[in-house]
């Protein structure tokens, strides 16, 4: 039934060939496994980084706690009052990480057009009780003063506003203000100046 192999050299050659093929298959499989592991590791790292960036774009934003405007009389017309400065009290949104206010961009869109600037470039950018202008705790509060006046006001404003080609806010005027943090998370605040402003008002809630 079985063939008897008398030539020992012929028997050894068959075994070595099979062993070589087996070793080659193992090496190929090991190389392929290494490539797959490296690729999986790279994809995992990239996915984690993308996930963190996506989360930051959603959560690392600020919230506007209150908004008020400074009422002043224009120099061109007695009895005509406008809002020349808007104060935003802001805080970290729930779940947000540290927010650097200096790296936050403010965009305004209103009846007079649109413009944008960074908080660090504001002519008056006092930040209250916040170290290095960074919101690190949910209890931190910052006051951002947005000067929207032009040079024709009676309050001796000679520097102009924080936005080129944008003047003071007239009664009844609407303004959309968007705060965008360094991570790309945005918060939009709609404000409207009361239709009536008088000399009895030094400031109004917006």
UniProtKB/TrEMBL annotation:
It is found in: Archaeal flagellum. Keywords: Archaeal flagellum, Cell projection, Cilium, Flagellum, Membrane, Transmembrane, Transmembrane helix. One of its GO terms (cellular component) is archaeal-type flagellum. InterPro entries: Flagellin/pilin_N_arc, Flagellin_arc-type. The chain crosses the membrane at residues 16-37. One of its GO terms (molecular function) is structural molecule activity. Pfam families: Flagellin_arch-type (PF01917). GO terms for biological process: archaeal or bacterial-type flagellum-dependent cell motility. Its main location: other. NCBIfam families: arch_flag_Nterm. Belongs to the archaeal flagellin family. Flagellin is the subunit protein which polymerizes to form the filaments of archaeal flagella. This is Flagellin. It comes from Halorubrum coriense DSM 10284.
